[in-house]
Amino acid sequence: TYIGSLLVSVNPYQELDIYTVAQMQLYRGVNFFELPPHLYAIADNAYRVMCSEYNNHFILISGESGAGKTEASKKILQYYAVTCPTTEQLQTVRDRLLLSNPVLEAFGNAKTLRNDNSSRFGKYMDIQFDFKGAPVGGHILSYLIEKSRVVHQNHGERNFHIFYQLLEGGDKDLLCWLGLERNPQKYTYLIQ
């Protein structure tokens, strides 16, 4: 639902058929309140106002753990990738922003009581557009906000994914060089 120019959404914890290319085309260039509330309407409105006012605009995505903030940001990036003027540089920007996300999540996500893949960090994503409205650059800044998880987890929660992934998939020589053993039960930080 909308509250003024704010969109309040709920994470259904499953893929819904509301984030298709057809939906992107439906919301492209439409007045804000003309169609039912949608993430694409927010993305399109911010883009069109930026282009008409030649001014910076932002979309703030906020919510508690498991609310779907990371998924919402990915959907917005996908919307811009499909609806903005396409250039070779757009493909590069889109690929870097979208493909870097799994790497960032491995280092900054962990299992919590509410979500098996919860971001434990803050993220600032920036997309730069030229005067024609074509994306020409972008970057992501991540802020690790839960460093205490490294040395302590609540009952039923886990450390950051990357440590388990390293133990499971790291080659034997690498683990030996790092002084690590494959069994996560051998680490006090993981079994408290």
Task: Tell me about this structure.
With about 190 residues, this protein is α+β, with helices and mostly antiparallel strands. The protein has a single domain (about 1-150), classed as Kinesin motor domain (Kinesin), CATH 3.40.850.10. The protein has helices spanning about 20-25, 40-55, 70-85, 90-110, 160-170, 170-180, 190, and strands at about 1-5, 5, 110, 120, 120-130, 135-145. The strands form 3 sheets. It has a two-stranded antiparallel ribbon. The chain has a two-stranded antiparallel ribbon with strand order 3-4. A two-stranded antiparallel sheet has the order 5-6. The protein starts with a strand and ends with a helix. About 15% of the residues are buried. The mean pLDDT is about 85. InterPro entries: Kinesin_motor_dom_sf (IPR036961), Myosin_head_motor_dom-like (IPR001609), P-loop_NTPase (IPR027417). Belongs to the TRAFAC class myosin-kinesin ATPase superfamily. Myosin family. It comes from Panurus biarmicus. GO terms for molecular function: actin filament binding; ATP binding; microfilament motor activity. Keywords: Actin-binding, ATP-binding, Motor protein, Myosin, Nucleotide-binding.
